[in-house]
Design brief:
By secondary structure, this protein is an alpha/beta fold. It has one domain: 3-Layer(aba) Sandwich (Alkaline Phosphatase, subunit A), CATH 3.40.720.10. It has 13 helices and 17 strands. α2 packs antiparallel against α8, α2 packs parallel to α9 and α11 packs parallel to α12.
Length: 469
């Protein structure tokens, strides 16, 4: 073993120390991967709720008012300049401009243009800060999803939530630091990889809460097994694991497993209260849309997210869209998009209102994003149910809450909502800004892997100061 390997594995081999913290709460020098750590710089945001709309949300039907689409409706769109690959090819091929089917109006003191598809969210226009014209590095869903959620188009990277918990730990040691809530209709593209820890220690991966009446499987204690007996069983298991770890180096996965067993034990006391929504008032349930079968699934996720950050959970990722119900509207957009928007509009507006009323919005960063935008045209000239194709250059995102300059806007797309009208905005700028708002400096948040210090922003991004208060 080289000197570098010895030092590296010694740094990672904390199984014995971590176990000491788990088995003896009064240890003088506790070591727990999820212990809270100081921010790199003072920041208001302490928790993050990350709202991911899978499939590619049509920006010109939701957040971008483009009169040119009405003027050129049904005509060939001019070739998209400064684009390559699929978008350049499709824009040069026979196509027709598809105008938005919904009315746009300005809202709030900021005069934010928003579609009639999002009436509830529009009432919070002055709370939101928008970034227009983000560019992802691939025009296909899989790589674009990975890029948005891990900073890299190739599988194996660490997710945004994993980076945040690696950098900050968690304020509640009895609940996961990073919770994920998936769509009830199926798995996200990329599966667990988009909330995994990648090359970071396994302790920082997200914990998936399932849909339905039991978000956490096997949460209850086994029949006829007392807490004392379960504690004795777990202590024996930990002893065996410690003996196993003592004979090996680089035991990060084993350490994560030990920590997971202990967390699961503590969660049997804390988590049932977290997922029990029966004590929420009727007014709160209606605020999130739990009284409507269309809004109830995502509304429940948003309400659980508020309850989680209220209890000190660092990151909650909500995933919307799966299978045939993704925001991937290549056809019949006039039928499909209203359904997507109705499912999320009231729940997200309710989340923002509830956080604000409880004094939590200042300390919670809420992020809304998809993996790409859509094209203003359709290449299918015969259908009477047109849709929109992929557009890696036209992604729109918004942020709200801790440290965000409410009502701000950065960037703009061209007249056809194809790409940034001026300087390109790479996705790493979005990630750098998110980290900064959470009190983390991208240049200091690194991890040595395969001989290179990895970062969420890879070669580094520009913090978008224009949306930071």
């Amino acid at each position: 073993m080289t000197r570098r390997d010895l030092l590296f594995h010694s740094y990672l081999g904390l199984g014995g120390l971590a176990l000491a913290d788990l088995l003896a709460a009064d240890t003088s020098a506790p070591v727990n991967p999820m212990d809270p750590r100081p921010q790199h710089h003072p920041a208001k945001a302490k928790s993050c709720i990350f709202l991911f709309m899978e499939g590619g949300v049509s920006q010109m039907d939701t957040y971008e008012y483009k009169p040119a689409l009405l003027k050129y409706a049904g005509q060939q769109m001019p070739k998209a300049e400064r684009t390559t690959g699929e978008l350049a090819t499709f824009s040069a091929a026979p196509n027709r401009v598809i105008p938005p089917y919904w009315e746009f109006r300005q809202h709030g003191q900021s005069g934010r243009w928003m579609s009639s598809l999002l009436p509830n969210l529009a009432t919070h226009a002055d709370d939101l800060a928008f970034i227009h014209g983000l560019k992802v590095d691939n025009n296909n869903h899989g790589p674009a999803v990975y890029h948005t959620l891990t900073g890299n188009i190739i599988p194996g990277g660490a997710s945004v939530g994993a980076w945040l918990t690696y950098g900050l730990g968690s304020a509640n040691k009895d609940l996961p630091g990073f919770i994920v809530m998936g769509d009830r209709r199926g798995a996200t593209i990329g599966g667990a990889g988009v909330w995994g820890s990648g090359y970071l220690p396994a302790a920082y991966q997200g914990t998936l809460f399932r849909n339905g009446s039991a978000p956490i499987v096997d949460l209850g204690r086994r029949t006829n097994v007392s807490e004392a007996k379960q504690r004795a069983e777990l202590d024996l298991l930990n002893l065996v694991n410690r003996q196993h770890a003592a004979e090996r180096s680089n035991t990060g996965e084993l350490e994560a497993r030990i920590a997971s067993y202990e967390l699961a034990f503590r969660m049997q006391t804390q988590a049932p209260e977290l997922v029990d929504l029966t004590k929420e008032t009727e007014a709160t349930r209606k605020l999130y849309g739990l009284d409507d079968e269309v809004t109830e699934p995502f509304g429940k996720q948003c309400l659980l997210a508020r309850r989680a950050v209220e209890r000190g959970v660092r990151v909650v990722k909500l995933l919307h869209g799966a299978g045939g119900d993704r925001w991937d509207d290549h056809g019949a957009i006039q039928d499909r998009l209203p359904v997507h928007c109705q499912e999320i509009d009231k729940p997200i507006a309710g989340l923002l209102a509830d956080l604000k009323s409880r004094g939590l919005l200042d300390s919670t960063l809420v992020v809304w994003v998809s993996e790409m935008g859509r094209t203003p045209f359709d290449n299918n000239l015969t259908t009477d149910k047109p849709g929109r194709d992929h557009n890696q250059y036209g992604l729109v995102s918004w942020m709200a809450g801790g440290g965000v300059k409410a009502g701000a806007t950065f960037g703009e797309t061209d007249d056809f909502s194809v790409r940034a009208a001026n300087e390109e905005i790479p996705l790493r700028d979005f990630h750098a800004t998110l980290l900064w708002l959470m009190g983390l400096d991208q240049s200091r948040l690194t991890y040595l892997h395969a001989g290179r210090y990895k970062k969420l922003t890879d070669i580094g991004g520009r913090v978008i100061w224009e949306i930071i208060s």
